[in-house]
Amino acid sequence: MMVTLELKHKVKVWQGIFEWKGLMTGASVILKSLIGGFNPREGTFYAGGLVLSSKNNQLICVVDLGTTGNRTVLFDPQGREVVKAYREFPTVAVEHGQSEQDTEDWWRTTRETMQEILKPGKIDPKEIAAVSVVTQRATLVPLDASGKALARAITWMDTRISPSAEKHAEQIKQRTSVRRALWIKDKQPKVFAKTHKFATPDAFLYQRLSGVLGSDLSNHVFGILDRQSWKLSDQLGDELGLPTSLWPKIIKSGSILGELTREAAKQTGLAAGTPVVAGGGDQQCSVVGLGVLEKGVAKGTTGTGTFVVTPVEKETKDPMGALFCHPHVLPNQWVLEGVLPGTGAVLRWFRDEFGHVEKTVAERVGRDPYDVICELASNAPPGCDGLVLFPFFTFSLGILHGMGFQHSRAHIARAILEGAAYAARFMIDTSFGAGVNIQELRLDGGGARSELWRQIQCDITGRKSLYTQVDEGTALGAAILASVGTNLHQTVEKAVKEMVHIKQVHTCDESNKETYDKQYSKWQQILMSNLQEILKHV
Question: pTM for the full model?
Answer without folding.
Answer: 0.84
